[in-house]
């Protein structure tokens, strides 16, 4: 399943912030209180898993940033 440009952008921004904090996919999944493989499934473009608005809010808390940090300045 192909991701849309905005989905790809958001996944990449979350990945960048996760790596900058030295968090593994599993560690971030656990911080979100999701299954251990949740983040890896979202980051794998071959999977159907995606972040929703509630996930982005929880990710912002876990990664200590604003939900706005995951969105581009201009529409894609």
TrEMBL record:
Outline the extent of the HTH cro/C1-type domain: 14-70
The organism's superkingdom is given as: Bacteria
Q: Name the Pfam families on file.
A: HTH_3
Protein name, entry field: Transcriptional regulator
